[in-house]
Amino acid sequence: EVALSVPDKKVESLCPYCGVGCQLTYNVKDNKILYVEGRDGPANHGRLCVKGRYGFDYAHHPQRLTVPLIRRADAPKSGDMAMDPTRVMEFFREASWEEALDLAGSKFAHIRDTYGKRMLAGFGSAKGSNEEAYLFQKLVRTGFGNNNVDHCTRLCHASSVVALLEGIGSGAVSNPVMDVTKAEVIVIIGANPTVNHPVAATWIKNAVANGSKLVVMDPRRSELARISHRFLQFKPDTDVAMLNAMMHVIVHENLVDKEFIESRTIGYEDLKKNVEGYSPELMAPICGIDAETLRYTARLYATSKASIILWGMGVSQHVHGTDNARCLIALALMTGQIGRDGTGLHPLRGQNNVQGASDAGLIPMMFPDYQHVTDPKVQAKFEKAWNVPADSLDKSPGLTVVEVMHAIKKGEVRGMYVMGENPAMSDPDANHARDALASLDILVVQDIFLTETAYLADVILPATAFPEKDGTFTNTDRLVQMGRKALDAPGQAKPDLWIIQQLGQRLGLDWQYTHVSQVFDEMRRTMNSIGGITWERLEREHAVTYPCTKEGDPGQPVVFTETFPRESGRAKFVPADIIPAAERPDLDYPMVLITGRQLEHWHTGSMTRRALVLDALEPDPVALVHPLDLAAMGGQPGDIITIESRRGKVGLYARADESSPRGAVFVPFCYYEAAINRLTNAALDPFAKIPEFKYCAIKVTLGGDA
Ligand code: SF4
After folding, report:
1. Ligand 1, closest atom to CA 20?
2. Which residue has the higher pLDDT, 7 or 86?
3. Which UniProt keywords are given for this protein, alphabetically ordered (predicted)?
């Protein structure tokens, strides 16, 4: 049928999945997407991965929310209820928009006015547009009256951002992914781009084919390791030991860039002193990489004409995630491998708009453009820009994602507004998070499907999917791109901006935005980094890189060429020492759980598991186990196994997988029927408050229920 159909319109837009930000064309007929084609965007040049090409039909899925829902007064609500979408009408009744918004607004206002402003919190979304993120945080800050606003950046790269802001003054990447094609040495650590950033992986493969040397560092053997020049399969949790050993070599063999250190950095002597105790011989047994390989890799990175480091959540999702990133930053600074083409630091951002949502202020300690909420000058600036009384904005940083759940349990947060996030699936120790969400006085969820979080809601507001609205999105390269409406929303589903504004009005905010471009224009006025990007230019050019501070600026794909955006213009070395994982294996729980994603599914699976082709490719919850570990427990591929931690247990199918080291099991977190985050540990990195998704102690047994 698709092959015979001719589209009646073509809409130039973006892929809604990962941070690579591929441009694509929706081919639409009768309000249905027939197929998708890649466009010649700066990040993809026509390429798309399986998610971008085949993951569009979730928008047409019969389970779309199409009418506001209100929880029935007699419906049960508890965190341990297994979700059953077929019973939705036993728990909820249909409502008009007026009734649902009035109920949500009046309950929020009651809590704010009766119990205090800090009793409310909001989670926005890294899947929404920049304008949605901006308006959402503005609602929390001016309507709720506090800074309790966060989103899933807290769960992915919060530690990278803290280390980058501290060390080089900017939380975004220094060079675009495409710079791998200009690099002599490419280091990929704690990332699996073939799975999580597939089109970026193709540029890496092209670079290797053209002579770049690829070094992959990871406890799991990723696909890219096959074409690597060196693969360092270090032991889980030993990043700092390995990276400090490399720095020890660079110092001792005098491979540092003295001129760069002297003219552009501070704190080198402290770093030098710190790495003195981390000789390769001492660190080899700790990290599992022999001393000679550590020496070779250090020399290779330090002496190449251009070395770039890309990293992912294998680096960031640890209690020492900030320290891991500090080491990567120090490596680049001490060797001068930053501020030029083909060099630099690139934390591969996960969701399609996690960079933009963070830039737009969807974080509890910063207003838009990373302006601190504690700075009186910044407060005054936003009070004026937002036309709210002087001295009315909250001066204290708000609660982060996991802290909000603890605060709910302590009775310190009583109402929540969740837009497009699914903490019942994505939070660590998800049973605890679900209990917390179920105990709220009011939970309002705005989404396109009945997610596991929406299942616990009091009010559900049906929103629009990615292809049903206009908006801007910022990819991992700091590229602000235009997403365009291709479809009309189903039923009574409404654009998120409309819903946020309606709720804002019920909280006393006099907002009258009539077009998304008005929100973007307001962002430009408060965010220097995008001040030069106009809506018209984006309409015309589709994408502009920030920083772009003045109209007509071309934008800067490579930054830090002359100075760093810190007080002195200099970057700062921050030494790091070994801190072990919060929960190590023991006799009762002898193995290690590593969580992450798989190619065909995205995040908590709410979209990709409703995309026909993607779900057909990976329909069942699987655990990747080393074949020898599987054999040792008497199992075979396809057998059901039960994985248990101190916080819960799940049953799923075992897949033999030699990429996982012995003693470690990898499980994707997208399967609601085997929600692996029921097992993960909510221990936090002390600087970034990111949970330790990449390490907790488990036991695995044969048998159980999948
Ligand atoms: Fe979409 Fe990312 Fe795949 Fe590109 S690489 S098509 S942005 S999921």
Report:
1. 7
2. 7
3. 4Fe-4S, Iron, Iron-sulfur, Metal-binding, Molybdenum, Oxidoreductase, Repeat
